[in-house]
Specification:
Largest sheet: 2 strands, antiparallel
Shape: globular
Order of helices and strands: EEHHHHH
Distance between the termini: 33 Å
Number of domains: 1
Strand order of the largest sheet: 1-2
Number of strands: 2
Strand content: under 5%
Structural class: mainly alpha
């Protein structure tokens, strides 16, 4: 199971976002949307933990997570909402409030 490290203070990426350990977030999103409860459990444990600190992949997954709030089952929606809340920490451009108003 993937375990996140703390964000590194070495190096920056574009908008002064700390470099983080690579996260298999695309696979974890697939796991979240899987009908398999084992895969959903993996996503439940890994995604909130991975997004607990600023990440550089937040904007990339934002729309998929919003879609999961609409199309997912109760469990998937709960996980997606938690991850979206965590991703607000990764919003150096402060676009999250605007995105939430559109929902």
């Amino acid at each position: 199971m993937w375990e996140p490290d703390s964000a590194s203070s070495e190096g920056v990426k574009g908008t002064l976002m700390p470099q983080t350990r690579p996260v298999p977030y695309k696979q974890l999103l697939d796991d979240l949307r899987s009908p398999s409860q084992d895969r959903q459990n993996l996503a439940f444990h890994a995604l909130p933990k991975a997004s607990d600190r600023p990440v550089d992949w937040g904007y990339e997954v934002w729309d998929d997570l919003l879609r999961t709030l609409v199309d997912g089952d109760n469990r998937q929606r709960a996980i997606a909402a938690q991850v979206l809340s965590n991703l607000a920490k990764s919003d150096p451009s402060n676009v999250c409030p605007e995105i939430w108003r559109r929902c």
